[in-house]
Structures are given as structure tokens and as C-alpha cells.
């Protein structure tokens, strides 16, 4: 209880850094330990494949709305008559989304 009351009396910027450090620690523990277990790794692979497929189909849909004829082959999307874009794990922006989500959770202001 005493620790919680001390935390509540901290400056908002200090709370932000504490929350950020705790969230980073959780993220690191997940990537270091849990992702290497077979069960979590299988879920991770399935979610990655689903996210990749969803991103390709959504991109094709929007490109078709703008009048571009597109095709998807495996993990590559291309506009007919041009080169393509290969979408792999590094292109999914998961870490960026995780960073943004962590920032929102760490922010000490009121959530509306």
C-alpha cells in the first residue's frame, strides 16, 4: 500500500518512464522466453500468417478501388505490368504497433 501511494504522488513524467520501463520489460520477457516455447511460437506463426494475408488482401482491395489491377502471388503483391512488393515479417510493423500501444498505456493522463 505504501508503494502504491508513493507511485500515485509521483510526477507524471516519472510515472510515464516507470510505466514504459515495465512495459518494455514485459515485451522483452515475451520475446526472449515465451515466444520460444512451442505453443506460443505456433500461435505467433499463425497470427503472422493471418496478418500478412490480411494486409495483402486489404492492399489489393484499396489498389483496385483506385483503379489499379493487382495480383497476389504468395507474399508478393504487384500492380499488373510493374514490379511487386514482397511482404515479410519485417514489413508488418508489429514492433511499431507495439511501441505505439505501449506509449498509450504508459501515458499518465486520463484515458477518455
Q: List how many beta strands DSSP finds.
A: 3
Q: In this structure, how is the largest beta sheet organized?
A: 3 strands, antiparallel
Spell the H/E element sequence: HHHEEEH
Helix share, percent: 55-70%
The number of helical elements comes to 4
Low-pLDDT segments, ≥5 res: none
Silhouette:
elongated
Mean pLDDT over all positions: 85
- With strands numbered from the N-terminus, the spatial order across the biggest sheet is 1-2-3
Describe the overall structure.
By secondary structure, this protein is mainly alpha-helical. It has one domain (12-105). The chain is 62% helix and 10% strand. The protein has helices at residues 2-8, 12-32, 38-65, 94-106, and strands at residues 70-73, 76-79, 84-86. Strands 1-2-3 form a 3-stranded antiparallel beta sheet, with helices on one face. Helix 2 packs antiparallel against helix 4. The longest helix is centred in the middle third of the chain and has 28 residues, at 38-65. The chain is elongated, with a radius of gyration of 20 Å. The two termini are 27 Å apart. The mean pLDDT is 85.
Short description:
The protein is mostly helical and 112 residues long. The chain has helices at 2-8, 12-32, 38-65, 94-106, and strands spanning 70-73, 76-79, 84-86.
Main traits of this protein?
3-stranded antiparallel sheet, 112 residues, mainly alpha
Amino acid at each position: 500500500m505504501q508503494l502504491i501511494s508513493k507511485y500515485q504522488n509521483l510526477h507524471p513524467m516519472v510515472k510515464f518512464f516507470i510505466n514504459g520501463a515495465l512495459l518494455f520489460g514485459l515485451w522483452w520477457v515475451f520475446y526472449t522466453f515465451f515466444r520460444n516455447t512451442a505453443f506460443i511460437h505456433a500461435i505467433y506463426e499463425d497470427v503472422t500468417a493471418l496478418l500478412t494475408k490480411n494486409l495483402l488482401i486489404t492492399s489489393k482491395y484499396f489498389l483496385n478501388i483506385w483503379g489499379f489491377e493487382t495480383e497476389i502471388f504468395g507474399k508478393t503483391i504487384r500492380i499488373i505490368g510493374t514490379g511487386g512488393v514482397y511482404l515479410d515479417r519485417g514489413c508488418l510493423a508489429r514492433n511499431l504497433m507495439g511501441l505505439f500501444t505501449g506509449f498509450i498505456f504508459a501515458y499518465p493522463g486520463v484515458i477518455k
